[in-house]
Amino acid sequence: MPGNQTKVDNSLSPHGGVLVERVAPLTGGPQDPTLRLPEIAVRDQLARECVNIAYGFFSPLEGFMGSADLDSVARAMTLASGYVWSIPILFDIDAKELDNLGVAAGDAVLLTHQGLPLATLEIQEIYDYDREFLSQQVYGTTDSAHPGVQRTNGYGDRFIAGPVTLVNPPSINPPFDRFWQTPRQIRETLSNLGWSRVVAHQSRNVPHSGHEWLMKGAYLAAEADGILVSAVIGEKKPGDYIDEAIVLTHQRLRDTGFFKEDVHHTSALLWDMRYAGPREAVFHALVRKNLGCTHHMFGRDHAGVGSYYDTYAAHQIFDGLPDLGIKSVLTLEWWYCPTCAGVAYEGLCGHPEQKQELSGTFIRSIIQGGVEPAPLTLRPEVLEVVRSCADQYGFGSPFVGDDYLENRTPVMTMHDIQCDRCTCTCTREKA
């Protein structure tokens, strides 16, 4: 099934020069031959990645990676075509399930999610790959305590490669529907705002004062027209902020005037963090390039976890890369300084021995301990939203826990397509 590729303004060119779009909603009714393809049910992560591929978030990828692309990404951080790419985008499956399907290269399958059709996958290759080597290359470790290594170790023992076409676009549920836009739609929004220089802020946290000043400092350093907050919505570690709190608190900063309306825009990216540190920093830059951003800010410990990466590894990795078409805005640490009586910047403040950290981990520990953060570390307006989200979405907590993981409202919901054959556990009526 062919997809669409759309040329865009070269001043905000996507990675590869063309914005990939592979969306072809089913129109053949119950007799549509697509509904008779062999079916593979996909987990949440793969469903989100199908959506991202189809709408061009991952341009120039048109589908899940084959062995040549995967090996090149693992070894050289480029696709086989030569374009820089740092994180594998893979469709894994157990060999037994694959055998039961009886499919091979040249076949097509229907991917289902929530028991309903989602996308087609045209199989170009079925292969295996050394997962331990993959972890070492991507994460710099094979330690099973690393969440990215855990994810890789949990992959099925085969990978399917090929183009993906979205045939049943899902609905994005509240409160995320206000913030989720396709790359084409985000580009239109940026154009309507009159922004030609746009700095992206990657976020998986409720914004504390350090984040606020990181954004303001990057805005000034980039001489930007505006800041695109790109909040990561997807699988998180226990103890991370719940997704709803992340997007709604960033929006609150704008609503309460800490950023003017014409210089700040909050959006949502469906992505399951890999915690790959510097490699994920490169990936984040490429995705935000596809959204139309000209700059991307990187502070301390970007996309890191634990002590696996140097504090500024995400700064250093760009030194060895060619021009990516999106500029990095590299900043040091922001902290609270009692002598300066406010938020201070590592590159300016002369009282480092008195610094009080403003890390996300530090702020979370205060809230989890039942202590109210000082107004100069977390805005009271932001804290109000955090507490509201805990009650409305988090089963009493603003942090990811078992109740949230098991009972949260899904970020996206599939639409019912009636058909005359249904082999999956869904609510479709047979015609």
Explain what this protein looks like in three dimensions:
The protein has 431 residues and is α/β, with parallel strands linked by helices. It has two domains: 4-170, Sulfate adenylyltransferase; 176-407, HUPs (Rossmann fold, 3-Layer(aba) Sandwich). It is 29% helix and 19% strand. The chain is built from 13 helices and 19 strands. The chain has helices spanning 44-55, 67-76, 95-101, 131-139, 147-153, 183-193, 209-221, 243-255, 278-290, 313-316, 360-368, 380-392, 402-407, and strands at 4-7, 18-21, 39-41, 63-64, 91-93, 108-113, 116-122, 125-127, 158-166, 171-172, 198-203, 226-233, 264-270, 295-298, 327-330, 334-337, 342-345, 356-357, 412-413. The chain is globular.
